[in-house]
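ARCHIVE CARD
Drawer: 12
Card no.: 0347
Subject: one protein chain, sequence and derived structure
Cross-reference: see card 0346
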Amino acid sequence: MRASSYFAPTLREVPAEAEIPSHKLLLRAGYLRKLGAGVYTYLPLAWKVIRKMEQVLREEQEVINCAEMRMPTLVPKELMEETGRWGLDVVYKLQDRRKADFALGFTHEEVITDLARQELRSWRDLPVMLYQVQTKFRDEPRPRGGVIRTREFLMFDAYSFDRDIDAMDTSYKAQRTAYERFFQRIGLRYLIVDADGGAIGDLDNQEFMSLADAGEDTVLSCDSCSYAANAEKCPVNPPAASETEPSVSLAEVHTPNARTIDEVAAFLGTASSMFIKTLIYSADGKPVVVLVRGDHTVNDVKLARLVGAAELELAPEAMVVAVTGAPVGFAGPVGLTGVPIYADHAVTVLQSAVTGANKADFHITGVSAGRDFTWTVAADIRVAEDGDSCPMCTSGTMRTTRGIEIGHIFKLGDKYSKAMQLDVTGEDGKLQPIQMGCYGIGMSRSLAAIVEASHDKDGIIWPISVAPFEVCIVVAARQDDAQYAAADSIYKGMKSAGLDVYFDDRDERAGVKFKDADLMGCPIRVVVGKGLATGVVEVKQRGTDVVETVALADIIQHVTVLKQQLLTALNPVTHHV
């Protein structure tokens, strides 16, 4: 492509709406433009990157015999009612002129399962793996980070169908390996972590996390073993039982204008770890009481699974008053009756603690678990934190970092096949539900994740496997006929040699072109300038300070070899089909 006729509108100023590096750079470098909240236009540069990622993905899916297809975006309401997902709040819904209800696909388990139940009859038809790359729609309440979290996004989603659990495990492992190779080849370092399946499935599932300061997920990993998990999923070991007996008597203390843990802790001069935080939740419309230590945070995902609630949220003030008899901020477990109480393990060993008195402007000190209150269920219901002991090896310590979820793989088992009556005849002649798996990669999110992981003060640094252009040719002086002719000849020769080339032939100052080349992020830059007088051009790799002088006659061969070296560094293992 020639820059003089290519659409790549750069920005000199950072847009005010952009807060994280990838968002700033993708806007400035002419990759994206915002249409609305969580809705973006992918300009030619971004679309080239995505298409190259898709090609790598297709190659890896071919290796594991996963076939590409395309499913509709419009999903009939009736299908989603079969699995109980029509009511999810992220689903976009619409009606046609006949008043028939549809959803815009946010994921395609129902559609693929409906197809399978029409076509698969016997265990002999299995295994089957299918995938698509398609636009998905989710009514995100808080889109953020450019294309990190959007309402319309591009996603790879694959589905496996197997005769039994062992075969499902085999498909799951095959996709995990394909994911590992895909992310390796596109230059994304990742961590595989245990995760919560959310609305998709609740069996084994893992996320592929690209570690980044701008990530919206908290990731915990052990400093001793290989265990890692999303904070939503990470288990917390129960604390050791208290070796002291309750000795301090209860005392009601007036705490005017102090509602929060921090306010009461400051008022009483007591550490927040000695508080019992009492929260009232509405679980499917019914109140439940939740107890965690004052310095801990309730894990809503763990709690929802524990209480079996489809909808879980902090209770409205009227419900809090009905349960405790006090305004919000003064709840405590002492004397509470008629409502289930869920206590985190750390609460059950507290002695001489502080909690609300179920009375405005009052708290109780000297509270001891087991003596002064009891609970319905004790369980792990808090968010894991930096410094917690590892739940797997127990000798290690969990450390936190931030991550961007770039992929997620699930064992679905028979969740959808039972709900939608997807059965096949087994070897014994009896009907049995198919075991399923599903696998997703956020393509547009991966675009941003690469930039988050690979940039500097001057712009983006693309891995050569997915760079919009592998080579950027800059003619330093556009009006110098000899320089332009040489650059044009190199451009044509590189294209003939199969290189993906961007020729900056604009009538701009050399400094402007260099800045734009760095901002765009092409891995290899060739400069035709004053050195041409002695028969040489300059070659520079993006992200390094090394400038090579190469003979004009050797430049195409030199860059071809350099490209292969960069690709090999990303993809050192050759696998066989």
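Annotation on reverse: The first strand starts at residue 32 and ends at 36. The longest helix spans residues 165-185.
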